[in-house]
Amino acid sequence: MINFEEELKKFHPSLEVEDAEEAIYNQDLTDMADLLVKMIKESEDKQGEQ
Amino acid sequence: MFCYNCGCHLSEHDFCTACGADVSLYKKIMYVSNRFYNDGLEKAAVRDLSGAVNSLRQSLKFNKNNIDARNLLGLVYFEMGEVVAALSEWVISKNMRSDKNIADDYINMIQSNPTRLDSINQTIKKYNQALVYCLQDSKDLAVIQLKKVLSLNPKFIRAHQLLALLYMDAEDWDHAQRELKKCENIDRNNTLTLRYSKEVEQMLAPEDGTKQTPKHKKDDVVRYQRDNEVIIQPLNVKEQKNSGASTLINIGIGLVIGLAAMYFLVVPSIISNANNESQKTIKDIGNQLDVKTSRIQELESELDSIKADNDSLQKELEAFVGTDGTIKTMDSLLEAAQNYLDTEDAVSTAEYLETIAEGVNLEETSDSFKGLYNILVQKIGPTVSATYYSTGYSAYKDEDYQTAIVNLKKAVFYDAKNGDALYNLGNAYRMSENAQEAIPIYQKVVENFPGTEKARKSQQYLDQYVQQNAAN
User: Fold this and answer.
1) Does domain B24-112 have CATH number 3.30.70.790?
2) Beta-carbon pairs below 8 A across chains A and B
3) CB of B56 within 8 A of CB of B72?
């Protein structure tokens, strides 16, 4: 049996058009490729130090 | 695919031919991203929009520069009614690749139509307001608001789902199912939709295994194909007996209904028409009655007028006609003439003539009557005038001006050339202080007897009256 109150918590206010700009700026765009490059660079840095 | 280190185009080797960097892992990440993109594309093609969103988001987590995946994600968001999310993806996509990017067209499509953009914004505001109403337990208002939202943006899945949830809470399972069907038509594999649908179906499912019934029905028909047509023949269908009797009963019922309809529809119309005609006839008769009444009144007034004229004429006739039926005035005139011829007494003849003059208007008498009357006056005039003058002058001398005026007036009447009578009449009026009568008498004396002593004195009196008036 569905609980209305609990289900209602799953619904969130939708972003308005005025808020779109802020949402775009705050979006985390880090991807796996970024992480890989970062890891490779860190690895290279460690090797250089040794 | 480009090298993450130097940006050169990568070959089939696991290292960059330009900088020598190891790109094997990087290449695998790109492949996984593309794999997710393909998966998202396939799901979007079969309207599994939720699945497509998940795959495309995964694709972008591996490679944020996957422009196709981002554009498709925006498109899927747009199809789900999430316009702001779609715009965000397209703006980021355009920012990453400004040239030859279809996201540019999508953004222009929305921004070039301010009305549509405003409508989208209103939709979102109303949805948020509906959500607030739900939290405030104003569910009716929330339902109304969500209906408005869906009239503006029928593909807004979250609004459909929230509306379905509200219907489910109100145990309006049919409406909830309808909303969930709409959700499924837009997004076939939405987990929330499926969960709600399952709940609703459980509530709507018939109890005691009656689901078998449709299957039974299906078995009750025989299907076979003849040429290009599929023939469906029902089984276990028995024709009703006594069909002839039932037909007759039905015809009878139909006739009764028809007669009743005619009675209730046609008869009132006929009665109404008859009433209208009667009213019209009564109105016409009333008009005619009014005309005749006014005519009667007119005739009555004419009759009254004629009666009044008749009375007046009767009185006049009575004045002319004596008791023996002869004309009185004519008789008097003949008597006056006889008296004058017999006695030649001017004074007694004058009395006859004065009686006639008092009883009749001489102007209305016949010419012969007037002729005889004037002849008599001329015959007796100077004599009678002299007699009246003598009497009047004596009274004047005795300062009995009223008697003097009466006799002198008669003297002037019988002889207009009697200047002394006229002059002394003026004096009598003057002495009795009747200037209004005296002045015209003196004026006649001045006009008719010029150069005489009477005229000179009359003029003096007239001058005196003028001076008196000027002084007053």
Assistant:
1) no
2) 93
3) yes
